[in-house]
Amino acid sequence: MHGFKLFMRLSPHVNVRWPLTSTAYACTLIQLALTMAQPMIFAYLIDDVLIEGDKALVLPLLGLSLGLAVLSILFSFVRSGLFRYLGIRHTLDIRDVLLRHTRAIPLPDIEKPGAGKFTALLGMDAATLGNFLNHVIVEMLSQLFMMVAAFGILFYMDWRLGVVAVACSPFLLLSPRLFRRPLAGYAGQVRTHNEEIGTHLYESIEGSREIRVFGLEGWEQGRNESMYRGLVRASTRETLFRVMSYQTGGLLISAIIAVVYWIGSSQVLDGALSVGMMVASVSYLHNALNPIQQLNNFYGELQSSEVAMARIEQFLATPVDAYARNERAAEEAEAEPAGAEPAGAGVGVEIRDLQVEYDGVRILKDVTLSLPAGKIYAFVGRSGSGKTTLFRTLLGLMPISGGTVVVGGRPLEEMTRKEIVRRFGAVFQESYLFRGTLYENIAIGRLDATEEEVAEAARLADLGALVESLPDGLRTRIDHKGFQLSGGQRQRIAIARALLRRPGILVLDEPTSALDQLTENEVMDAIRSSMAGRTVFVSTHRLRTIENADRIIVMEHGRVVAEGTHAELMRSSRLYFEMASTFETEREPRSGSNEAAEAGVGA
């Protein structure tokens, strides 16, 4: 019953498609009714034809049996097709719900568990829920209908046989409870092991370079073997308990049928029951008891379904971030988000006592900044100083623990995700490239952009030589994550994507780390030109880019420790002076740089 309660709580997330579902269930009931008529036909065949010798009934009875069998097959064909279609659609429904919820929860809650959890959730768990709805429930209801109908017919034929069958049924129904707890426990362990293996296999593929360079093949195999042993152990024990549960039911059914044969044989010998009716009664007894056995067999599947549904319910209970809540509230109110700026306008940011923490660790501490619109701001600091966290917070990717952030006159925590997307554009140090063409990867910056605008964005990002070298230009297909491209080429595609967007605020988090100094200068000049009048936040270790900023913000240990121009900070901030001395060594282009000579794929 717990599984059905879980499903009822999850049912609002699934489009049941009642017309198709009702048709499928109607076909199921008709098919079962046709099947239930067969034993009675053969009872008449035995009594009236084989015993009484009425040959005239042979063809009619066999024809009726064949006709019912054909109809049963036709209805079975329709129901199977409908339930298969519904199973796929329901799996896709819940997968879509899970994916949309993934987009609404805080980003750290996605990054921390690893890919394995979400692969299992969107894959196995979603499929298990679809299987529960269109296989487990269907078969359980079908077997229940067959059981009730068979018991009714048994009582009609001979009430004593019906009493025996009903009296023995509770033993069959209760036998699975002996195995319920271990089955649930091992089913949960199997899910957990599969999730961990999925995460580690993903790491093994993504970390192939490091595994080869450091010779970690043996270490990797040992780690995987340890996880495989846990999965094999849990899976084997789960299977053994399933078999024990099923065989226990089978033993009980054999004992009950033996009792019925004993009673039925006595009645046949006494003339109270015909041979045909005894054979039919045994068939109906099978029809009454086998569903109970099948229900026991489904008990293991029900346990697996409960585990999957509990995981789905737990995930859907993960609180969404403030921006997703605001978006839902705006949709319910059918209101347009407030605070929209004219196209091309710069956006200012005011930060007061901002605090950001995750897992109890405070990352940003009382950050206060006034950043008027239309200027370029460079953020510098040692690794771990909080620059990336600040950028992620402004982009709505990290929850605010305290303080306020006002963007374009509107509190960030009151904004919807769409408002944030409209105001901000971003380039990360490791930007993701999607499987598709080079054109498509740039165009996702603004989906309604024209081909000329996409080509211009590519030119501004210094992608001209790359585009000319490719066989199909902008229409060349890119492999997984842009595997055939160099790091610098991937970064410039991400920059083109951001320039195409022309946002009010452009956030650049180490956007040119894979570019040589000469290429970076050209790209940054293009950014300054195309973002004129708009606001740019940039984090970089390149001194020329820092010097050209209108204002420099120095961060250390999650705090802003200094701000000003390059000249001012060289005099007033020892930390900045030390970092600038380090940056100074990067003024000149690196000799032999691959980026300076890039002209083709993977150059």
Automatic annotation (TrEMBL):
<dbReference type="Pfam" id="PF00664">
    <property type="entry name" value="ABC_membrane"/>
</dbReference>
<feature type="domain" description="ABC transporter">
    <location>
        <begin position="349"/>
        <end position="582"/>
    </location>
</feature>
<feature type="transmembrane region" description="Helical">
    <location>
        <begin position="161"/>
        <end position="179"/>
    </location>
</feature>
<dbReference type="InterPro" id="IPR011527">
    <property type="entry name" value="ABC1_TM_dom"/>
</dbReference>
<keyword id="KW-1003">Cell membrane</keyword>
<keyword id="KW-0812">Transmembrane</keyword>
<dbReference type="GO" id="GO:0005886">
    <property type="term" value="C:plasma membrane"/>
</dbReference>
<dbReference type="GO" id="GO:0015421">
    <property type="term" value="F:ABC-type oligopeptide transporter activity"/>
</dbReference>
<protein>
    <submittedName>
        <fullName>ABC transporter ATP-binding protein</fullName>
    </submittedName>
</protein>
<keyword id="KW-0472">Membrane</keyword>
<feature type="transmembrane region" description="Helical">
    <location>
        <begin position="57"/>
        <end position="78"/>
    </location>
</feature>
<feature type="transmembrane region" description="Helical">
    <location>
        <begin position="20"/>
        <end position="45"/>
    </location>
</feature>
<dbReference type="InterPro" id="IPR003439">
    <property type="entry name" value="ABC_transporter-like_ATP-bd"/>
</dbReference>
<dbReference type="InterPro" id="IPR017871">
    <property type="entry name" value="ABC_transporter-like_CS"/>
</dbReference>
<feature type="region of interest" description="Disordered">
    <location>
        <begin position="584"/>
        <end position="603"/>
    </location>
</feature>
<dbReference type="InterPro" id="IPR039421">
    <property type="entry name" value="Type_1_exporter"/>
</dbReference>
<keyword id="KW-0547">Nucleotide-binding</keyword>
<feature type="transmembrane region" description="Helical">
    <location>
        <begin position="243"/>
        <end position="264"/>
    </location>
</feature>
<keyword id="KW-0067">ATP-binding</keyword>
<keyword id="KW-1133">Transmembrane helix</keyword>
<feature type="transmembrane region" description="Helical">
    <location>
        <begin position="132"/>
        <end position="155"/>
    </location>
</feature>
<dbReference type="InterPro" id="IPR036640">
    <property type="entry name" value="ABC1_TM_sf"/>
</dbReference>
<dbReference type="InterPro" id="IPR027417">
    <property type="entry name" value="P-loop_NTPase"/>
</dbReference>
<dbReference type="GO" id="GO:0016887">
    <property type="term" value="F:ATP hydrolysis activity"/>
</dbReference>
<keyword id="KW-0813">Transport</keyword>
<dbReference type="GO" id="GO:0005524">
    <property type="term" value="F:ATP binding"/>
</dbReference>
<feature type="domain" description="ABC transmembrane type-1">
    <location>
        <begin position="26"/>
        <end position="304"/>
    </location>
</feature>
<dbReference type="Pfam" id="PF00005">
    <property type="entry name" value="ABC_tran"/>
</dbReference>
<dbReference type="InterPro" id="IPR003593">
    <property type="entry name" value="AAA+_ATPase"/>
</dbReference>
